[in-house]
Write a structure and sequence with these properties.
single chain; Jelly Rolls; elongated; mainly beta
Length: 167
């Protein structure tokens, strides 16, 4: 990545390398009575350039007895170098509890977060290498425990991709 000094004029392509790619939920999405993860209809990040990317996913959810189960679907050109998961521990039911999960997993591993009737947050960070522009990662999710009360992925959940090193 080029660092610019006083007097240098970056090209549009060089400037765009520093702009994060963002996708965001603008509506709530409910899922009930299922522990089978499925692609989210909004939270797919398509990489605008090849290279090493840091992908941060902020998940705002309400478990309502079902909790949250998360995995990732990746296109064939993507290599996941690392994935960390942080949020309410699976056994917790109250956001005021101090017990959290903080763990490292592969992209396809299903990670579970606790159930709560109030808003809760989980954050996942992935280090990925995209072989080409157009490669993508998609959040997959379901309830951690099947429950007739829906788990809701809330408005404002988002994925932010930052290019760390272009190919």
């Amino acid at each position: 990545m080029t660092l610019f000094a006083a007097g240098m004029v970056p090209t549009a392509d060089e400037s765009n390398l520093h702009v994060p790619a963002v996708v965001r939920r603008t509506t709530n999405l409910d899922r009930a009575s299922t522990v089978t993860v499925a692609d989210d209809d909004t939270l797919t990040l398509t990489f605008p350039a090849a290279g090493l990317w840091e992908v941060t996913c902020h998940l705002r959810y309400q478990g309502n007895g079902g909790g949250l189960r998360v995995a990732w679907s990746i296109s064939s050109g993507v290599t996941v170098n690392m994935r960390s998961a942080r949020g309410i521990a699976p056994a917790e039911t109250d956001t005021a509890q101090s017990e959290i999960r903080n763990s490292v997993h592969g992209a396809g591993t299903e990670v579970t977060y606790g159930s709560t009737t109030s808003d809760a947050w989980a954050t996942e960070v992935l280090s990925v290498t995209a072989a080409a522009a157009g490669d993508r990662v998609t959040l997959q999710w379901a309830q951690s425990t099947s429950n007739a009360n829906a788990t809701t992925l809330r408005t404002g959940s988002r994925i932010i991709g930052r290019l760390i090193e272009p190919a």
